[in-house]
């Protein structure tokens, strides 16, 4: 029945693909596509695991054995690393080839080759951000400084290509057939490019939006509404540290000048507020068994095929297991016999924007330090399916590429804005993960992090010897106080990055007295840290909830850590809603309406948890959105992007300054306060609620947010899973919103033998017809886990089948 259902959904998808040809390019050849022996019908069958398989692979120095468990998790046993990573490339391509190629084509700005001109604007942005340029710089750096890693990357690419070369049309993943193209060879450049894609996914900035807002409200109000540190700062590194280093000197210039005109742009997408990642480790002194426990749950887009792929990689020297990224070598978040590690995004401002003054329209020279210096031109040919190529002229300055100019997203302003970004630097993030995979102790862990530049990450650590640690790692520009918040004058050297903070001075901690380390995308440090630390998207709720729970817990078990990853308590609502109700109920007449009374009672009795079946969370969420619009909507102007204060700062204003000027409406005959806006927003919420009620049978949190795990091609809805019933949301430890959430959950107890559990929302196979495409979603939505402990080569329990790779 599953295959019949899949076939029906596949046909629906095909019909949609043809009907939406304007979005996905030219119609595929239907005769070949529907050929029952070679076309999409072949993809209606799950992989055949009824017998073991044997493949001849060129380049192997010894036989490799791959044992798949009953969840299709491969355990690769090789005699050396070159064979190991050649096998990893082959195995990953078997299950995720289309995803690997599609994501790197997206990073390179090549989606128009697949789907047509609808992706042209996206491709131009990808090229103009310089992801390809950054990958080229990174690959050259690896080739020159780390030939061993480069050689292993070549082995991985060779493994992918040997699988590609074995494919006939019959065996192509279904997306190739529907979109009518074939895979091209994998290269080491694509691995480097994929790692830059991850850097892009995990970075954001609002410099241009802040610039507009500063002009609108002034410096004094900006400082009040956007403070460097929150009132309730609960940083990654425990507060009140004594920093045992002498900081590099940096002084703020006296003659800072900011732009005095509005900037009209179509801004880049940025990470959502309240959606990020969590990781932590607790010392053995706080656990029931006396062993450290490490947890990690990176929150990213929820996509199919899933971003992660669970794998075990074993040689005689080490065995490592955890979540890999299809396209990159090794395990990214995982553990071996000696250590465990995990990552969260260390939100720091590592992208800055510079206004460039070109000498003339050909833009071959620009003003810098009272001189005209040469720019360079990079011609980007963007191939478009069914059409002629588009040639984009991207000018590069010494800062980086000019992203916005009169021809692109600049609303025809005669402005040129260049991007400076650490992802453009030559770097070797791949070696970081390879060395973590091999690491035996804290010293190895620190050494592995030395080559990691971007995206900045909080690396959590635990070892079987009892150590726990956390380091904030990346290349962080040495900036003067407030540098990089706003657009800067590219002609003046005072706005340059002066240096980089030494890696050994990045915030770090080991075995703190409180018995745990943690991060949830909040501020890295408190004000005692001697360098300027800024980002526009620091978290203010998940971190406080996490640290509060870890502080009060004792005799912690693995199950306790699983429950904490799935924690649905909404700290923001617990701080904002009681005050909003107090302001609302100052007018007691409002309760004379029976419907209003029931809604208020529902809110008053809410425990602030966000389980999917509850009815209060969507009421609060609609009320809060209307309140934010009442307070900050007056600042919004068409085509002038700005940033509004976050939920934390807005709640603080409601609490501490209800009569603040920001609550007053312009052009109003009376002076409004927070109380009036709370009541007005409640009335607006009632209208939204009634409208929603008319469309929805069950007015629950799950039906309100409708969590969807979407195929990478949004048009392929039949390959997606919609309205997954699960709790959580933005700013909640279980940060599962409409399209974002825990893309991987892992808990590892580091005893003599690691005891490990993991889950992600999808399945190991990228084939929509496979029973392993979505089989883990239900478990993930319920907060359940797989046992992902290390598997010895001799283990026969729960064995699905075995693959042997032999020398050709």
TrEMBL record:
Pfam families: Penicil_amidase. GO terms for biological process: antibiotic biosynthetic process. Binds 1 Ca(2+) ion per dimer. Its cofactor is Ca(2+). The lineage of its organism: Bacteria, Pseudomonadati, Bacteroidota, Cytophagia, Cytophagales. Keywords: Calcium, Hydrolase, Metal-binding, Zymogen. This is Penicillin acylase family protein. GO terms for molecular function: hydrolase activity, acting on carbon-nitrogen (but not peptide) bonds, in linear amides; metal ion binding. The active site is at residue 277. InterPro entries: Ntn_hydrolases_N (IPR029055), Pen/GL7ACA/AHL_acylase (IPR014395), Penicillin_amidase_A-knob (IPR043147), Penicillin_amidase_dom1 (IPR023343), Penicillin_amidase_N_B-knob (IPR043146), S45 (IPR002692). Ca(2+) binds at residues 349, 352. Belongs to the peptidase S45 family.
